[in-house]
Structure formats: structure tokens, C-alpha cells
Design a protein that fits this description.
The complex is a heterotrimer of chains A (about 300), B (about 450) and C (about 300).
Chain A: H1 11-37, E1 40-41, E2 51-52, H2 58-65, H3 67-98, H4 105-112, H5 114-117, H6 120-130, H7 137-144, H8 159-185, H9 188-196, H10 202-230, H11 233-239, H12 251-261, H13 265-289
Chain B: H1 2-23, H2 25-40, E1 46-50, H3 60-74, E2 77-80, H4 87-99, E3 105-109, H5 115-119, H6 126-132, E4 162-169, H7 170-176, H8 187-199, E5 203-205, H9 214-222, H10 240-257, H11 270-278, E6 282-288, H12 292-298, E7 305-308, E8 320-324, E9 327-331, H13 333-336, H14 339-352, H15 355-360, H16 381-391, E10 395-397, H17 406-420, H18 426-434
Parallel strand pairs in B: 1-2, 1-3, 5-6, 8-10
Antiparallel strand pairs in B: 3-9, 4-6, 4-7, 4-8
Chain C: H1 12-16, H2 21-48, H3 54-57, H4 71-79, H5 82-113, H6 119-131, H7 134-147, H8 156-185, H9 189-196, H10 201-212, H11 214-230, H12 232-238, H13 247-258, H14 262-297
Helix pairs in contact in C: 2-14, 4-14, 5-8, 5-11, 5-13, 6-8, 7-12, 8-11, 9-10, 11-14, 13-14
Classes of the chains: A mainly alpha (about 300), B alpha/beta (about 450), C mainly alpha (about 300).
Membrane topology (chain C): Multi-pass membrane protein
Main location (chain C): membrane
InterPro entries (chain C): MetI-like, MetI-like_sf
């Protein structure tokens, strides 16, 4: 990092400006509008604000009193936690296992990727068929094994499982790919050297793979946190408007609902800000705890 | 292995494509024909149109063939962006108007939903159009066009009236030993029948309280009011209309607590619950005239189904129905002030609202046509029942929910499942809904 | 994603466990997960060839004989222009992918290798923008592009551009974060060696960084392509007319027509998914070749 190559700063403009220009126009400017909107009173998707709310922070006090927002936050935090444990966890396990076998690695890598290839919309339809109450795949199976009562997979007992499982399952392949790519970036020489030093099996994982994967894992962590806050398609298609009984709302689905079905654009903007603030705070904390390392 | 998978997938796909190729020539040929026609006509224009005849609307095919006929006749082309009518569809249309991205012709609601369009001068009134085109909508009765509640003027030309009625699976009723109800069906008898059906292990009412409680809301409220009260909105849950609404909502709660709705009514989609009707697993459902197409497509035998009056109680006779002309074709100010498009749009609306075209749209006697609708030649038993029902109606009231603004309506219907399950009370839900002003 | 078949002999750690019970256990675990990812697709493919009622009564059987039908595909092809939609999808997604990979590569390199004031702020901005829900940015973007006269026009090319621009921006932050993670992990020695040989930074980027980081670029490219291809929301918002419809937008159209016709729905899912799977499976091989070559020499 202290290399003399990068002392001269002029090429930096060429590297950074195009990307940031795009993001400024299509992300930062609209989001700045969004912050402004959260203090206004807006009655339609495309209308300009009628004026400021009175008091101007009205939407923010509403946030704290809104029981559904509370549900959405709790569910999202839970999703975040499960994402880190299961998505990243299973992906890491699979990646490390695959690093230990010779035959069939290609095959596994290919098929683990299948769920990501498919749009969340299509997957949502697929899982709706799987968890369908009357004649869904799971209930058909249960009937075959002699169950008499069908299970309503979207009721108040099962909804968390029904909502979270597809999300977890879909993105394992995503983190798997990122971690495998990271593992492949580790030079074989290092493993050879370790072999000579007598490190093998768990020791090799513990002292070589994991430390060298450090940055990749942090990337995964941040992607998992931000991903969980934004999750929308699958839950929206499967659970609709917070079914059952407004229990399954997530920040993403609730924000969409407020903006596009309830037409409460300013409150929707406020929820969007909450999403971003929470995401930034959590990823900053994660960065502090597990500092990224340069080599 | 990878190759094998790829091969299998490719074969599956090419098999599918083969089917596609075999079945496509017909539409391709008709496209060529319409293109040939368009090149001959003078100055063909392209107009953009948005309607609610997209998705699984029962009239989608009728609509498409009507506008294709217009294209062939005039040489103009129609850019169609129709969708399915729901709250999101409405929001998006309003957003288009607000950002200046509106279509040239719009098929939309004529009630409160269009107030912003009227107030903002975004659509052209029929009087204005008639100054230049005197015979515009001349085949319709002006008093039935559906005047805007914003200023009492006519803006839209309706196609066909809608009605809401009780769809019945006759096979299920027969299996349960319940008689198929008619015009004299009462609410008490209905409750008894539901109990009988339930005792046979069949769901009496196919309805998703989570997604579409709208129709049961209409009739339950109607049952506690009259034709006159049903056009009014409450000011609070305690005034006269407010009490009517409260009683109606509590009727839904009763139906729910007695277990007449599907077991998963708070988690099912509308599509799932309607599937119960097609599968002979449910007996009754209330829905609108647009649902006929669904039964024609999904019923094993259309003769197993019929439609009749929703059972009445109190001040409402069973033969008083909900219906009317709630939607119509608007020409936007933007298209009107574009000399190139003006005539094309007027011609389009005329072509879509001729007596012949209107008569193909759904079975109903509710119409604004001066001459009434012509009977279709090949009606099935369900369509005949629908015609009979609308002809025998003793009174017709518009849906009371159309008087609410969109956000208030969405909030109210989101709360119906909470009322049914006791998480909130009807009074609280009504007051919360009425408190929403924008 | 990038495999190492060609370099297997050079990796002694793979050989050691051969044939041991541990390895069998590994295969069992890996295979179990593979079943969960393969079976749902087989299930959909099978059911797309069945009559519409069968999916809910007998979804596990293989469609042969009486239960086999092509009706679902016939309906799908009758109602919509599938080939045109494939073309539209490819134009949009390939453009998005190429631009994103290039711009994100630049930005990630700048962020990973240069020390400058404001770097932390830029870093936070990138992370923050990954969390912007697209629903909150879409309306200002819509208005802005409406001002540029590229939305709601009759031109297919402009409609495509109106999807491409926001999608590029939407995928950039993810791409930068991932590439930055990988680039930081690269040893700087190679760049220093190249510098001593007289390369300037641009040459270093294209001739040293890009070849070494090929696997990461490939990863980013694949994800960008997929997200662009599958991003229904942006496509719904900007593609109004049927001649500009992409395949994902079309799937939505078909399913809304289908209602509860699950057979048709399954056919629609297959039509959307299969081309991507085929492209992925074939592409993967080529990408891998390039990647391993780069990795060893690097």
C-alpha cells in the first residue's frame, strides 16, 4: 500500500469518476430527494410535495408508534442473524468441503449455483407451489406418509419457517461462489508449505484457509447484512401483505407496501432511510470488529 | 455431467420452441395483414392505451380483438399497456399522470379514483369532445355515463356495466343436499345452508380475507342498509351509516367465527380460494361480472356453476344488487391537444364502445347503451344465469367502497382480517379508515 | 465457480484424503445439498409437461403417456412473443454487465490501492448505496429520465436504455465491494515488479490486475448479468409496451394471465430459466480455462 506506484494521484480521477458519476445520478441524488421527501407531505407517487409535514419530523415519531414497523424490524434482524449463520455458514462449510475432494467439484459448483440463476419471482411461484395448502408439494408428501390434516404453512405457527427457508436456500450458492473464488485465490504453494510443516485437516482450515479468507468473509458479512435489509421479492410473492395477520412484514416489503399500495410516499421514504441507517451502522460495527486486512 | 445437464435442458427447451413454432403462423399472418393495411391508409398514427383488460381479466380476448379490428380498419396502431386492476395498478397510472407520462387513451374508474385527473385538467370532458365530434358517445344514455363526483360532468365513456353476485357450485350443493338458491334466498337460510355444508366437511364460502374481502364487505354492509344509504359514506363509526358498516363488518366476523370461510382464509390468496370452487371443495363465492371468464376457463363443466342474488336481510331485498358503470374510456388532455392524435383517439373510443363491441363484453343487462345490449348467440348456462339475474334486479346500487379514496380503502380492507379474528373492532377500523384524508 | 481440474495434480491436499471414510462423508453432505438445488427444477420441468390439474394432485410422477402434454408451452407461445423477449433481455443484460465490470473494476482498483483523503467517506457511501431500496430511488430516477425523454417513448432502444442506466448504477456498488475485497487480498509485489519494468498504472491494471483477478471479475459479471436479467421491478417500471418486453417481464405477464393455471406457470418458469442455465453451464467452462491459466502464472 505504501508502494511508490500509487503516490501519484492523478489516475485516481480516471478510476473513480465514471463509477461515482453513475451512482451520484442514479443513487445518491434520488436518495437525497428521498431524505427531503421524508419531511414532506406527499399524496401521490409522482406528485410534488404539498408542503412540509407539521411537525416536520411527523413521520419519524410515527415510526416509533407503528406496531407493524416494530414487527418488520424484529423480523429483519432475525433474518439478518439467520442469514449470517445459515447462508454464510453453510456456504463456508460447503466451500471448505469441496476444497478437499477431487472428483465432481465441477458438478457441485454448477448445481449449487442453480437457485441464484432463477429470478426471485420464479422462485416465489415455485415455493408457493411447494408450500401450497391444498395440494402443494410438501402437503402431498405428508399425505403420502399418512398425515390426515394438511398443514397451513403460512399460518401463525409456520410462517417464519416458510418465509425464511427459501431465502436462506437461494443465497447459499451465492456466498458459496464468493468463498470458493476466494479459496482459489489462495496460492497452492502456501498449502504445500503447510503440508511440509505438518499442518493438515482442521489445522489447515484453521490456520491457513480461514485467515486468508478473512477479507472475503467480511465482504460476505456485509453483503448478508445489506441483503437482509433489502430482501423483497421472495417474501412479497409468498407472504403478500404481511400474511398471516401482519406478522411477516420485513422492512423491504413494508416500505414497498407503504409507497406503492398505500400511496404514503413520505412515510415510505422514511422507512427507506431507516433501512439505510441501520445497514450502515451494522456494517460499520462489523468492520470495526473484524478489521479488513491488507496484504 | 455438466454436458448431460446442458443437453437435457437444451432438448427440453428446443422441444418447447418447436411447439411454439408450430403454433405461431396464424398470428404472424394476421400481423402481416394489418401491417399491409396500415401502409395503405393515410398518415397512420400510433396511440398509447392503458386499460384494465390485461392479466386474467375475463374480457381480455374481447378487448384485444376489438382493438385489432380498430387497427385494421383505420391503419393506426395501438400501443397497449393494459394491466390488472388493483391498487398498485391505480397508483402507477396516477404516477404516470403526475410525471407527465400518461397514455393517450385510458380506461379507468369514473368515481373518486379519477378526481385528481378531473381536477388537474388531465382528461377531456365529453361536452368538450362533442363540440368537435358531435356524435361522440351518441349511442349511450348521458345520464348513465358515470359523471365525475368532482364536478358532475361526464368525462368517460363506459363499455359495460358490472354486477356483483353469488357464484354457486351446484354440484357441491347437490352433494350436500342443499337446494340451489333463487331470488327469495334469505340470509338466515344462507347461514343454515352454510352449517349443513360445513358439517359435510366442505368449505361453505370461498374467500380470502387476507386478500379480497371486498365483495363480502359490500353485501354485508348493504344488508344492513338500503339502496339509498348504500351510496353514502359514514362520517364516523357512530353515525347512521357508520352503524350500518359496523353491523356489516360484524356479519363477516360471524361468518369467520362460525368457520364458514376456508381454514386458511387469513393466509390464502384469492386465486387459491377460487381454486376451491373449481375443485368442488367450496360452495359459494361473491365476485363480479369479470369473473365469468375465470369459470369458463377453469371449471370442469360450466354447467356445474351458476350465479344468483346474494341473500338479503333487513332493508335489502335479495334482488337489490350491487353494480353499475364504474369505468370508462377517457381521452387525455395531452392526446386531445395533439392534432395528429386527436381524431385517432376519438375514433378509438368510438370503435371500442359501439353497440356490437359492448355486447361482446360480458353477460349483463347493466349498460348505458340506448338500445341495450344485443344477446350473444352462443351463451353458456352461466352467462344465461347472469343475464337473468341482472334483468330481474329490483334495484341497483354502486359499490360503496368506490366512494372512499384509495388509501382509506386499502387501510380498511387490510383491517378486515383483524376484525374477523378479533384483533381490532369494526368501530376502530372504520374510524381509522375515515381518518385518512390523503 | 472456477474450478481447478487442470491444476489438481499440483494440489497435494486433495490426494491425501482419497478413499478414506472422511471423504465419503464429504460426498454425502455435498450430495444432499445438491439434491435440494436440483430437485425443485426437475419438479418444475416435469410439471410443465403435465396437464394443469395434475400438479396439485400428482406432482411427483414423471409425465409419460396420458399425463404428458405440450399444451402449457403452446399456450405460452400463443400468447406472447418469446423470442423477441429473449433478444431484449440479452441486449439489456449484456450491456449492463460489460459497463458494470469495467467501471467497477476501475473504481475498486482506485479504492483498493490508493491512499487519499475522503477514501473512508467514499467507502461508506458505497456500502450505504447497496442498501438503498430501489423503490425509494425509482421515482426521482423516473422523473429525471422522463426529462431526458427516454422513458415512455415508442422506441425500443430508448426503452432499453431507460432500464440499462439505473441497472448499471444499481449493480455498481455490489461489484465494487466484491472486487475491492479481492484486490486487497492480492500481493502487491507483482505490481511493483511490473512498475519497475516501466508499466504505468493503466497498464498495470489491464495487464497485471485483470488477469490475476479474473475469477473475481467473472464472478461479478455473472451476478450482474443474472440480477439484470431477473430484476423484475425496474423492468416493470420502465418497459410498458410488449415490443420492448424482456423475458422476465414476460414471465410476469404470463403468470398474471395464468391465474391458477399452475402448469402454464411452470412452463413460464422453465422458459425463463433454461436459457440462463444453458448459457451458464457452457460459459462456465470457458471462464474457468481463462481463470486457471491466469491464477497459476500469476
Amino acid at each position: 500500500m505504501n508502494s511508490t506506484i500509487y503516490k501519484k494521484k492523478s489516475p485516481l480521477a480516471v478510476f473513480l469518476i465514471p463509477a461515482f458519476l453513475f451512482m451520484a445520478l442514479f443513487l445518491y441524488y434520488p436518495f437525497a430527494m428521498n431524505i427531503y421527501n421524508s419531511f414532506c407531505n406527499i399524496t401521490g407517487l409522482g406528485t410534488a410535495a404539498v408542503g412540509f409535514n407539521s411537525p416536520w419530523y411527523l413521520n419519524y415519531t410515527k415510526l416509533f408508534r407503528d406496531p407493524i414497523m416494530n414487527t418488520a424490524l424484529v423480523n429483519t434482524m432475525l433474518l439478518m442473524l439467520l442469514t449470517i449463520i445459515f447462508q454464510v455458514g453453510i456456504a463456508l462449510l460447503l466451500a471448505l468441503l469441496i476444497d478437499n475432494i477431487r472428483k465432481g467439484t465441477q458438478f457441485f459448483r454448477t448445481v449449487y449455483f442453480f437457485p441464484i440463476v432463477i429470478s426471485a419471482t420464479a422462485l416465489g411461484l415455485l415455493f408457493n407451489l411447494i408450500f401450497l395448502y391444498d395440494g402443494g408439494m410438501v402437503n402431498q408428501l405428508l399425505t403420502k406418509f399418512g398425515a390426515t390434516d394438511m398443514i397451513d404453512w403460512k399460518d401463525e405457527i409456520h410462517y417464519l419457517f416458510t418465509m425464511m427457508t427459501p431465502v436462506m436456500w437461494q443465497y447459499v450458492g451465492f456466498y458459496f461462489v464468493i468463498i470458493v473464488t476466494g479459496l482459489n485465490n489462495i496460492s497452492p504453494d502456501i498449502y504445500e508449505a503447510a503440508e511440509i510443516d505438518g499442518a493438515s485437516g482442521f489445522k489447515r482450515v484453521r490456520y491457513i484457509s480461514l485467515p486468508l479468507l478473512h477479507n472475503v468473509l467480511i465482504t460476505c458479512l456485509i453483503l448478508a447484512v445489506t441483503g437482509a435489509l433489502k430482501v423483497f421479492d421472495l417474501p412479497w410473492i409468498m407472504m403478500g401483505a404481511g400474511m398471516p395477520m401482519d406478522k411477516s412484514w420485513l422492512t423491504g416489503t413494508y416500505m414497498y407496501n407503504q409507497t406503492f399500495t398505500m400511496g404514503d410516499v413520505d412515510y415510505g421514504s422514511t422507512i427507506a432511510i431507516v433501512i439505510v441507517v441501520i445497514g450502515v451502522v451494522i456494517s460499520q460495527i462489523a468492520n470495526r470488529i473484524f478489521k479488513e486486512k491488507d496484504y | 455431467m455438466k454436458r448431460v445437464i446442458a443437453l437435457v435442458l437444451t432438448m427440453a427447451l428446443s422441444g418447447a420452441m418447436l411447439v411454439g413454432c408450430q403454433s405461431t403462423p396464424a398470428p404472424a399472418a394476421s400481423q402481416a395483414a394489418s401491417q399491409a393495411a396500415s401502409s395503405e391508409a393515410a398518415k397512420p398514427v400510433e396511440i398509447t392505451v392503458v386499460t384494465s383488460y390485461g392479466g386474467d381479466d375475463g374480457n381480455r380476448a374481447n378487448y384485444e380483438s376489438a382493438y385489432k379490428a380498430y387497427e385494421t380498419a383505420t391503419g393506426n396502431t395501438v400501443k397497449d399497456a393494459s394491466g390488472t386492476s388493483n391498487e398498485e395498478w391505480k397508483s402507477k397510472i396516477m404516477a404516470d399522470f403526475e410525471t407527465g407520462a400518461e397514455p393517450d387513451v385510458l380506461f379507468y374508474f369514473n368515481g373518486v379514483d379519477a378526481n385528481k385527473l378531473v381536477q388537474g385538467g388531465k382528461v377531456v370532458s365529453i361536452d368538450e369532445i362533442r363540440k368537435t365530434y358531435p356524435d361522440y358517445a351518441s349511442n349511450m344514455r348521458d345520464d348513465l355515463l358515470g359523471a365525475s363526483p368532482a364536478d358532475g360532468k361526464n368525462y368517460s365513456v363506459p363499455v359495460n356495466g358490472y354486477w356483483e353476485g353469488l357464484f354457486i357450485n351446484k354440484k357441491v350443493l347437490k352433494d350436500c343436499g342443499v337446494e340451489v338458491p333463487g331470488a327469495d334466498y334469505t340470509w338466515d337460510q344462507f347461514l343454515k345452508d352454510c352449517e349443513t355444508i360445513k358439517s359435510k366437511g366442505i368449505t361453505p364460502i370461498a374467500c380470502s380475507l387476507q386478500e379480497v374481502p371486498h365483495y363480502w364487505f359490500e353485501y354485508c354492509v348493504f344488508n344492513h342498509g338500503t339502496l339509498a344509504t348504500h351510496t353514502k359514506l359514514p362520517a364516523s363509526s357512530t353515525d347512521e351509516i357508520g352503524k350500518v358498516w359496523t353491523d356489516g363488518l360484524n356479519d363477516i366476523k360471524t361468518l369467520y367465527t362460525k368457520g364458514y370461510f376456508p381454514k386458511n382464509t387469513t393466509t390464502a390468496t384469492d386465486a387459491e380460494t377460487f381454486q376451491l370452487m373449481a375443485d368442488d371443495k367450496a360452495a359459494f363465492a361473491i365476485d363480479g361480472s369479470w369473473k365469468i371468464g375465470w369459470f369458463q376457463e377453469n371449471a370442469k363443466s360450466i354447467d356445474d356453476f351458476t350465479v344468483t342474488y346474494v341473500p338479503g336481510e333487513n332493508g335489502r331485498k335479495s334482488t337489490d344488487i350491487i353494480g353499475g358503470l364504474s369505468m370508462g374510456y377517457y381521452i387525455t388532455q395531452k392526446a386531445w391537444s395533439d392534432p395528429a392524435k386527436q381524431k385517432a383517439c376519438v375514433d378509438f373510443v368510438k370503435a371500442m364502445t359501439t353497440d356490437e363491441v359492448v355486447s361482446t363484453f360480458g353477460a349483463t343487462a347493466v349498460t348505458a347503451l340506448k338500445n341495450g345490449t344485443a344477446a350473444k348467440s352462443d351463451t353458456d348456462s352461466l352467462e344465461k344465469a347472469a343475464m337473468a339475474m341482472t334483468k330481474g334486479a329490483t334495484g341497483i346500487a354502486p359499490a360503496t367502497q368506490d366512494g372512499l379514496i384509495q388509501t382509506a380503502r386499502t387501510a380498511l380492507f387490510a383491517d378486515i382480517k383483524n376484525i374477523a379474528t378479533g384483533k381490532t373492532t369494526a368501530e376502530k377500523a372504520i374510524d381509522a379508515c375515515l381518518a385518512i384524508k390523503s | 465457480m472456477h474450478t481447478a481440474n487442470t491444476q489438481e495434480p499440483a494440489r497435494p491436499h486433495g490426494v491425501r484424503r482419497r478413499g478414506k471414510p472422511g471423504e465419503i462423508l464429504i460426498y454425502i453432505v455435498l450430495s444432499l445439498w445438491a439434491v435440494t438445488t436440483i430437485y425443485p427444477f426437475l419438479w418444475v420441468i416435469m410439471n410443465s409437461f403435465k396437464l394443469k390439474g395434475l400438479i396439485r394432485s400428482d406432482s411427483f410422477s414423471v409425465p409419460v403417456g396420458d399425463s404428458f402434454t405440450l399444451d402449457n408451452y403452446k399456450t405460452a407461445f400463443d400468447r406472447v412473443d418469446i423470442f423477441g423477449a429473449y433478444k431484449n433481455s440479452l441486449v439489456i443484460s449484456i450491456t449492463v454487465t460489460v459497463v458494470v465490470v469495467l467501471l467497477a473494476g476501475f473504481a475498486a482498483y482506485g479504492m483498493a490501492r490508493y491512499q487519499f483523503r475522503g477514501r473512508n467517506i467514499l467507502h461508506s457511501l458505497i456500502i450505504a448505496s447497496m442498501m438503498f431500496p430501489v423503490f425509494s430511488t425509482i421515482i426521482p430516477v423516473f422523473r429525471m429520465m422522463f426529462g431526458w425523454h427516454i422513458v415512455n417513448t415508442n422506441s425500443v432502444a430508448l426503452s432499453q436504455l431507460s432500464v440499462i442506466l439505473p441497472q448499471i448504477a444499481g449493480n455498481l456498488s455490489f461489484a465494487i465491494v466484491v472486487l475491492m475485497g479481492f484486490m486487497r487480498g492480492l500481493p502487491i509485489d507483482l505490481e511493483e515488479a511490473a512498475y519497475l519494468e516501466g508499466y504505468n498504472v493503466y497498464q498495470i491494471f489491464f495487464k497485471v490486475i485483470v488477469p490475476i483477478a479474473k475469477p473475481s471479475f467473472a464472478t461479478v459479471a455473472i451476478f450482474t448479468f443474472l440480477w439484470s436479467y431477473n430484476d423484475l421491478f425496474t423492468q416493470m417500471f420502465f418497459l410498458r409496451y410488449k415490443d420492448a418486453f424482456t423475458i422476465t417481464r414476460l414471465l410476469n405477464e404470463i403468470t398474471s394471465i395464468a391465474g391458477v393455471n399452475y402448469g402454464l406457470m411452470a412452463a413460464a418458469v422453465v422458459l425463463v430459466v433454461v436459457p440462463v442455465l444453458v448459457v451458464y453451464i457452457f460459459l462456465q467452462k470457458n471462464i474457468i480455462k481463462g481463470m486457471t491459466a491466469g491464477a497459476i502464472k500469476g
